[in-house]
Amino acid sequence: TQVSHATFITAFNNADGSYPWSEVQQYNFQLGTVVPLDKGLLVGAGNNRSVVLIDYASGNGLWGKKGKGINANGGSLNGAVAVGDRVLLTAGGSKAVAMLHDAQGEELWKKAVKLKGEIRSVKLLDKAIAIGSAEEIDVVDRATGESLLGGSVKGSGSLAALNKEALFFLNTKDGLLYRM
After folding, report:
1. Is 113 strand, coil or helix?
2. pLDDT, tens only, 19-71
3. What CA–CA distance (Å, rounded) separates 141 from 127?
4. 170: helix, coil or strand?
5. Which end of the chain has fewer CB within 10 Å, C or N?
6. Following CA atoms 131, 73, 118, 31 in sequence, which dihedral angle do they give, to the nearest 10 degrees?
7. 146, 157, 149, 112: which is closest to 172 by C-alpha?
8. What whole-number distance in Å separates Cα of residue 109 and Cα of residue 113?
9. pTM for the complete prediction?
10. Degrees to nearest 5, angle at CA 46 with 33 and 34
């Protein structure tokens, strides 16, 4: 037995309940993660790596060829965080991957950030991003995605805290508290 999935997305005007888009958007994937962003509605497939960013006003796709979307690096979309006019996508479940994308959905880093365990925490610093999974944490340069720690360290996103002055995180391998 072959199973196929289709996802239908539409919008309504808050004022009168009318449809602002000329047609319902249809995608040939199982609905997965949905993230409302300032620039549009990010929709990830639950059964593959497809990700679309839908313009709120028109319903048109903003990423990929002819607005048909992109493929998330590493697996199905788990989440997304706005980083200025860019978007950090997280994917991959227990073998987590994070990649920064521009306004057209193009990958900006040469390599994705890879962590063991599902990504649970993203903290934005002035020129860096702290990405924490269930098992590891890494702090990467916003421009390049390169690790500022020389690679991920044992710990967890829940063991990191950010205040106005610094990022603090606990490395569970050496038992030390680090400040950046």
Report:
1. strand
2. 999 999 999 999 999 999 999 999 999 999 999 999 999 999 999 999 999 99
3. 6
4. strand
5. N
6. 120
7. 157
8. 9
9. 0.89
10. 15
Alpha carbon distances (Å) from 83 to 60, 99, 120, 127: 22, 11, 16, 11
Find where tokens 């269930």 sit.
134
Query: Residues 20, 62, 42, CA angle at the centre, nearest 5°?
Result: 80
How far apart, in whole angstroms, are the C-alpha atoms of residue 22 and residue 2? Answer: 32
Q: What is the DSSP letter of 62?
A: -
Q: Which residues contact 9 (CB under 8 A, 6 or more apart)?
A: 24, 25, 26, 27, 41, 43, 54, 59
> 70 exposed, middle or buried (CB, 10 Å; 0-12, 13-18, 19+)?
buried
| Residue 160: CA count within 13 A, CB half-sphere | 28
Residues making up the chain, counted from first to last:
180
